[in-house]
């Protein structure tokens, strides 16, 4: 168990302790949200998308990474546009997902029949992906390996399908070969990868073929730095040998194992994953716990402060009653924020739709213009590749912009509809002056961002959660939909149609004379521009559907936030009404009882803060092996 797993286990162990302390009414409002938050954290999936040109040792590297020779098909010419995922499961199985939404369980040994160009030429079986699972110890911590088609191959759909995955990867493992200098397509792909994903590790394979591979690795570093504009020292590049690792494992040779480069590769991947998505998952889990605990502890803290004197009692009573009235107004079906949210979402989406349409029109215009250039006859493949890449990039730009706008709107509405559950000067310790700053409940202006963080953990959307929750084309995977995953299936399927038509006519084109080739280009223009128009309509339609999903998800999460805060306020009012009727002796006894509960809550807040500090410190800690 590495440091990230230990910390995740500690956070998960806190969930049942906090749930046992929850007020019954708060538990009713927050129970489902806590359960979903705990399940997402327990799942702890980290998607590592493996990319690279074909015949670069990608499949061999994957087999070596999980110590399962032959699991991923090797020695094939070109993979299809389908992808293969591998995750942990107690029982070994594999499922093929087809583009018509049908599925088929297959033996893992039969995967090559569906994901290799040799046995599924031009993807005639219409395979979308294969999901494999096996009891592989290296994957038990939550890693999901995603094997993508080769980039830069003759089949343009391969590169397009792989590019579509980049924004949803938690980490990208790019595979190159020590004996082949990085080509233009590879360098362009790496530049795109570094723009989309914070964790990009380049593995230079087959270092056993060179007596001294270090100069080749440094040459690759220099070329990547020049092409991407990144500092050479900031690039993570590791030389590996699958052959050496297999021999080292068979011979139980730790020295040879280290020389294979795989331990260094695993450390690099885990370190990056830990300080990005791993830490984010932990923080979202702690946010959910803290919000529920705050709402349960608030009535106790308010009552303790009110027991100081009658002035405190009346002041706190007035504050909480006012907050309760605001919560009731927010929860009303005709509350102003509901209609405004719909209008604001549409307002945010309109310019994004317009820009997307303009981008696609520009792609079509540039394609038509390129068809009149000399390279249209000499290299039509590159024209189609530019169209495919342009479609994916434009769609992903629109997705990123939309996610940013929706996130901003969710943050605004979280604050707009939030009402305090604590009186202004009440702290977790129950006295007007906080016992320690660390355990003060989050009610001040400086904690508004933390409040949004907790609401975000409830809503489940956003860029930070997208990669861990779902890959493009893999469905949502979270409690509520996110915007990101809709781009891949639409663009990928349309690009597949473009390239399938194009590839099917390549041989015929090569046999034709110049006049026939020009006729061919005319047909190509008609078909590709039609596909671009179809893509535009499909993406706009799906965008509208996803906006509806997001609106429903946000409304549901806001309603649950309002309900939980209202229940906490109501409990405070009940407690204060009880105090009003008590004698001085009864108040003293009640204060002693509440102090015991407050101490338990304070101890839990202290543990939450300690876990936050541990999570924040993950970036400076070297990680163990997978």
H-E order: HHEHEEEHEEHEHEHEHHHHHHHHHHHHH
Total of helices: 20
**Low-confidence spans:** 429-450, 460-494, 621-626
What profile does the largest beta sheet have? 9 strands, mixed
| Share of β-strand residues | 5-15%
Q: Taking strands numbered 1, 2, ... along the chain, how are they ordered across the largest sheet?
A: 4-3-5-2-6-1-7-8-9
Describe the structure.
With 626 residues, this protein is of the alpha/beta class. It is 63% helix and 8% strand. It has helices at residues 3-21, 24-43, 58-65, 112-115, 156-165, 184-196, 214-228, 242-251, 254-259, 262-306, 310-331, 336-370, 375-378, 380-417, 448-459, 463-469, 487-504, 506-511, 514-581, 584-616, and strands at 46-52, 83-88, 93-98, 103-106, 127-134, 143-147, 171-177, 200-205, 236-239. It has a nine-stranded mixed beta sheet with strand order 4-3-5-2-6-1-7-8-9, with helices on both faces. The N and C termini lie close together (8 Å). Mean pLDDT is 79; it is low at 429-450, 460-494 and 621-626.
Structural topology:
Blueprint: H1 3-21, H2 24-43, E1 46-52, H3 58-65, E2 83-88, E3 93-98, E4 103-106, H4 112-115, E5 127-134, E6 143-147, H5 156-165, E7 171-177, H6 184-196, E8 200-205, H7 214-228, E9 236-239, H8 242-251, H9 254-259, H10 262-306, H11 310-331, H12 336-370, H13 375-378, H14 380-417, H15 448-459, H16 463-469, H17 487-504, H18 506-511, H19 514-581, H20 584-616
Parallel strand pairs: 1-6, 1-7, 2-5, 7-8, 8-9
Antiparallel strand pairs: 2-6, 3-4, 3-5
Key descriptive features of the protein:
626 residues; alpha/beta; 9-stranded mixed beta sheet; 8% strand; disordered C terminus
């Amino acid at each position: 168990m590495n440091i990230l797993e230990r910390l995740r286990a500690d956070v998960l162990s806190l969930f049942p302790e906090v749930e046992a302390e929850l007020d019954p009414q708060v538990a009713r409002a927050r129970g489902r949200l806590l359960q979903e938050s705990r399940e997402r954290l327990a799942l702890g999936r980290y998607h590592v998308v493996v990319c690279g040109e074909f015949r670069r040792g990608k499949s061999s590297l994957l087999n070596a990474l999980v110590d399962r020779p032959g699991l991923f098909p090797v020695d094939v010419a070109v993979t299809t546009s389908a992808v293969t995922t591998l995750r942990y499961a107690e029982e070994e199985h594999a499922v093929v997902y087809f583009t018509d939404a049908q599925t088929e369980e297959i033996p893992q040994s039969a995967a090559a029949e569906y994901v290799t160009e040799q046995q599924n030429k031009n993807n005639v079986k219409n395979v979308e992906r294969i999901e494999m699972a096996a009891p592989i110890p290296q994957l038990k911590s939550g890693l999901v390996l995603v094997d993508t088609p080769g980039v830069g191959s003759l089949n343009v759909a391969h590169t397009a399908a792989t590019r579509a995955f980049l924004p949803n990867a938690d980490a990208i493992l790019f595979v190159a070969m020590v004996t082949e200098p990085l080509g233009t397509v590879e360098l362009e792909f790496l530049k795109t990868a570094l723009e989309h994903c914070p964790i990009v590790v380049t593995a230079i394979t087959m270092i056993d073929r060179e007596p001294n591979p270090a100069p080749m690795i440094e040459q690759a570093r220099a070329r990547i730095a020049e092409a991407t504009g990144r500092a050479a020292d900031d690039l993570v590049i590791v030389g590996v040998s699958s052959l050496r690792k297999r021999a080292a494992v068979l011979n139980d040779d730790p020295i040879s194992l280290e020389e294979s480069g795989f331990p260094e590769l695993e450390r690099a991947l885990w370190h990056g994953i830990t300080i990005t998505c791993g830490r984010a998952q932990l923080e979202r889990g702690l946010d959910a716990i803290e919000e529920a605990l705050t709402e349960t502890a608030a009535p106790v803290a308010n009552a303790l402060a009110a027991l100081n004197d009658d002035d405190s009692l009346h002041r706190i009573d007035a504050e909480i009653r006012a907050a309760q009235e605001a919560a009731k107004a927010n929860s009303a079906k005709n509350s102003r924020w509901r209609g405004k949210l719909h209008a604001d979402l549409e307002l945010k989406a309109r310019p994004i739709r317009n820009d997307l349409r303009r981008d696609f029109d520009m792609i079509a215009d540039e394609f038509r213009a390129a068809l009149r250039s000399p390279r249209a006859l000499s290299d039509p493949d590159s024209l189609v590749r530019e169209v495919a890449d342009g479609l994916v990039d434009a769609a992903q730009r629109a997705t990123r912009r939309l996610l940013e706008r929706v996130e901003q709107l969710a943050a605004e509405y979280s604050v707009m509809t939030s009402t305090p559950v604590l009186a202004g000067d009440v702290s977790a310790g129950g006295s007007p002056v906080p016992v320690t700053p660390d355990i003060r409940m989050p009610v001040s202006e400086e904690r508004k961002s933390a409040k949004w963080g907790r609401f975000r953990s409830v809503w489940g959307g956003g860029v930070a959660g997208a990669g861990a929750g779902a890959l493009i084309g893999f469905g949502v995977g979270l409690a509520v939909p996110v915007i990101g995953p809709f781009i891949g299936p639409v663009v990928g399927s349309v690009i597949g149609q473009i390239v399938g038509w194009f590839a099917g006519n390549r041989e015929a084109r090569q046999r034709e004379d110049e006049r026939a080739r020009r006729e061919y280009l005319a047909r190509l223009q008609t078909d590709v521009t039609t596909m671009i128009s179809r893509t535009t309509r499909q993406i706009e339609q799906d965008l509208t559907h996803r906006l509806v999903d997001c609106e429903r998800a946000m409304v549901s999460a806001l309603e649950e936030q309002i309900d939980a805060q209202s229940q906490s306020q109501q409990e405070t009012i009940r407690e204060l009404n009880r105090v009003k009727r008590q004698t001085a002796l009864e108040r003293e006894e009640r204060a002693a009882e509440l102090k015991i509960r407050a101490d338990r809550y304070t101890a839990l807040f202290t543990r939450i803060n300690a876990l936050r500090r541990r999570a924040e410190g993950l970036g400076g800690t070297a990680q163990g092996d997978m």
